[in-house]
Amino acid sequence: KQEVTQIPAALSVPEGENLVLNCSFTDSAIYNLQWFRQDPGKGLTSLLLIQSSQREQTSGRLNASLDKSSGRSTLYIAASQPGDSATYLCAVKDSNYQLIWGAGTKLIIKP
Amino acid sequence: NAGVTQTPKFRILKIGQSMTLQCTQDMNHNYMYWYRQDPGMGLKLIYYSVGAGITDKGEVPNGYNVSRSTTEDFPLRLELAAPSQTSVYFCASSLNWGSTDTQYFGPGTRLTVL
Predict the structure, then answer these.
(1) Chain A contact for B39 (CB, 8 A cutoff)
(2) Interface mutation target, options A25, A44, A94, chain B, most CBs of B under 10 Å
(3) Do the chains contact at A43 and B108, CB–CB below 8 Å?
(4) pLDDT for the residue numbered B56
(5) Which residues of A touch B (CB under 8 A)?
(6) Residue A51: C-alpha distances to residues B5, B73, B99 (Å)
(7) What is the pLDDT of residues A9-61, one digit of tens each?
(8) Omega of the bond leading into A111 within 30 degrees of 0 (cis)
(9) If DSSP codes are grouped into helix, strand and coil, which group holds residue A90?
(10) pLDDT computed for residue B99 by the predictor
(11) Does B8 score more than 80 pLDDT?
(12) A76 neighbors A105 (Cβ within 8 angstroms)
C-alpha cells in the first residue's frame, strides 16, 4: 500500500532564506507527484505537477524534483517571503489513479 | 469562473443527525471528488465520480453517500452522523483522469459532530 511521508511536520525560517521541503513515498509505481499549497480557511492550490517520466518542474521561485527510484521528492523555495507561509502538501497518483497524500509541512516565514 | 464552491463553510451536528454537503463546479470538469482531512493527517478519498450518473467508492466511504445527477453538482450525504465524522471536507474536480491532470479544490466544510 502506498504511503506518503513529509518531513518536517513544521518549519520556521527567517525571510529571505532558501529552503527545502521533503516528501517520500513507498511505492515507485506512480503516474505523477504533485505539490499543493493549503492556506487556512481556503482550499488547496496546485503548485507543481511532475509526471513519472520527468525529473523536475519549476514555477517562479519554486522548483520540485522527483527521484522515483528512491521514492523521494523535494520542493525548493528560493528567497522565501512571509506570503509563502502556508501548509505544503505532497501527493502521488498511484497505480489506481488515486491521489495518496502526505500530512503536510506547515511553513512559517518570519519577517 | 467561481471554480469549485462548497456550502456550508461550517456546521455542527448532533450524533444521529443527517446533512448534505453541497459541491458545485463551473469548469465543466468530468471528474469530481470528496475528501476528508483529519487534523495532522493527509487527505483521504471518500467517493469520486467520473461523470454524471457514475460514482465509486474511495478509501473511506462508510457512513457517506453521493450522487451525481449533473456535471456541475456532487453532493455528499452524511446519514446518522457520528463523532468520527468530525473533519474538514473538501470537494475537488478535474477535467480528466490522466497523469497531467491536476485537481481543483473548494474551500472546504468544517464539520463537528457532538
Answers:
(1) no
(2) A44
(3) yes
(4) 96
(5) 4, 9, 31-32, 34, 41-46, 49, 51-52, 89, 91, 93, 97-104
(6) 28, 29, 6
(7) 999 999 999 999 999 999 999 999 999 999 988 889 999 999 999 999 999 99
(8) no
(9) strand
(10) 75
(11) yes
(12) no
* DSSP per-residue string spanning A34-47: EEEEE-TTS-EEEE
Instruction: Round to whole Å and give the CA distance between A56 and B56.
Output: 33
Joined grid coordinates for residue B79: 446519514
Q: Identify the CA nearest to A15 among candidates A79, A92, A89.
A: A79
Q: What residue ranges in A1-111 does DSSP mark as E strands?
A: 4-7, 10-14, 19-25, 32-38, 44-51, 56-59, 62-67, 72-77, 86-93, 99-101, 105-110
Nearest residue of chain B to residue A43 (CA atoms): B107
Answer yes or no: are the C-beta atoms of B32 and B74 closer than 8 Å: yes
Question: What is the pLDDT at residue B63?
Answer: 96
Q: Which amino acid is at A50?
A: I
pLDDT value at position A14? Answer: 96
Instruction: List, for residues B47-79, the tens digit of each pLDDT value.
Output: 999 999 999 999 999 999 999 999 999 999 998
